[in-house]
Design a protein that fits this description.
- The chain folds into two domains: 145 residues, 3-Layer(aba) Sandwich (Rossmann fold); 168 residues, Dihydrodipicolinate Reductase, domain 2 (2-Layer Sandwich), CATH 3.30.360.10.
- The N terminus and C terminus are likely disordered.
- The protein contains eleven helices and 14 strands.
- Helix content is 36%, strand content 25%.
- The strands form two sheets. The chain has an eight-stranded mixed beta sheet with strand order 8-9-10-7-11-12-13-14. The protein has a six-stranded parallel beta sheet with strand order 3-2-1-4-5-6, sandwiched between helices.
- Bound molecules: nicotinamide-adenine-dinucleotide.
């Protein structure tokens, strides 16, 4: 972040003296573990990101890794150990979620900074172990809740900054994914919005009231989740895989404003200045143009260079996962129990 980087010169200079932090101007050597849908996007962005050098990718699917490596002109290896032998400063963990713990612990053990895709892990215990290991090793740990870096999310957050937030409603719906992993909509989709609710309110969720159902698939494919945050905001998430088109919308009511954001078209509208006759002002807010993943990776590199707090901490990742698991546990229907998430993709 510009302000953080701008204010951090002294702090950064002192950190540069420590060997774990790459020198300010040297590119940060990054490796990507798992180059399926998400990991190949990380690799694509890193290959072209100023301040980063893509040292290699690791994936046991050699056809896939060769395809990505040939396209990006980087080295392909079969596993995390071979990637760590290339001495990356940082590792992106984009393998299936049930492997996040072991891969992240190996990378941290080798002294690498780590960005772990969401959800941080299949269980809270494994997520906490990753957080503890990163802390003990003194490396940066960030979680890939990429929606935080959607410019529309930033515009909404700016519009409600300093306002008395009353409620938040988020819709994230669409058709079934082409390849089903064995997690349902709560872990796959709602975890993004649980994180956004905490981000918008600068708070955490203390109460959940979930309605969850596996209507068509083996795992939950509809979820209507209600929450209360520690600072008193009411929130709900409507998510499913039963809608023929994708929609991602955020509605925030504050005491003086109503802000509506479309996270796909990135149009953000603010209603304010309510009059006794029912009239009000309405305006479209300006939204920056940026690829969220590029912003996320830039911020990760910033956090490594400055030694500062990453935008999405390991604790944030654990907290969102814990809330999602609580929704499933409180619902308690067969097949939705958290222990089964261990096998999640
Ligand atoms: N932030 C987001 O919006 C977002 C979106 C999609 C996926 N994800 C997350 O990214 C992760 C990957 O999801 P995906 O959709 O890309 O899955 P995917 O199945 O497309 O890709 C996973 C890749 O990991 C590889 N892999 C399997 N075992 C491995 C191992 N031991 N070491 C290295 N690689 C291994 C597979 O061969 C595959 O190429 C998941 O944690 C998922 O939740 C996040």
């Amino acid at each position: 972040m510009l302000d953080r980087a701008g204010n951090a010169n002294e702090f950064r200079d002192s950190l540069m003296a420590q060997s774990a932090v790459p020198a300010a101007r040297a590119p940060i050597r990054v490796g990507v573990v798992g180059v399926g849908v998400m990991g190949s996007n990380h690799a694509r962005v890193l290959a072209d990101l100023p301040g980063a050098s893509l040292v290699g990718i690791a994936d046991p699917d050699l056809m896939q890794s060769r395809k990505v490596a040939d396209f990006l002109g980087c080295k392909a290896v079969a596993n995390i150990d071979d990637l760590l032998a290339l001495k990356p400063d940082a590792v992106i963990v984009a393998a299936p979620s049930h492997l996040h713990h072991d891969i992240a612990i190996s990378a941290i053990g080798a002294g690498a900074h780590v960005l772990v895709e969401k959800p941080i892990a299949p269980t809270v215990e494994e997520g906490e172990a990753i957080v503890a290991a990163a802390k003990a090793a003194g490396v940066t740990l960030m979680i890939g809740h990429v929606e935080r870096f959607n410019p529309a999310v930033e515009a909404i957050r700016n519009a409600i900054r300093g306002e008395d937030i009353l409620s938040i409603g988020i819709t994230r719906v669409g058709p079934f994914p082409p390849r089903m992993s064995n997690v349902g909509v709560v872990i796959d989709l709602a975890v993004h919005d649980i994180d956004l609710i905490c981000h918008f309110t600068d708070s955490h969720i203390i109460e959940v009231q979930p309605q969850v159902r596996a209507a068509v698939a083996d795992r939950e494919d509809i979820a209507l989740l209600q929450f209360r945050t520690a600072n008193g905001v009411l929130a709900h998430i409507n998510t499913n895989w039963l809608t023929p088109f994708k929609a991602r919308t955020v509605h925030v009511a504050t005491r003086k404003k109503y802000v509506i954001g479309d996270l796909l078209t990135r149009q953000v509208t603010e209603c304010s200045d309510y009059k006794p006759d029912g009239s009000y002002s309405m305006r479209h807010l300006s939204v920056a143009y940026a690829e969220p993943l590029r912003v996320e990776l830039t911020r990760f590199l910033d956090a490594i260079r400055t030694g500062g707090r990453p935008d999405v901490t390991g604790e944030d990742g654990v907290s969102s996962l814990a809330t999602a698991i609580k929704c499933l546990a409180e619902q308690g229907s067969p097949g939705d129990r958290p222990a089964l998430l261990r096998a999640a993709g």
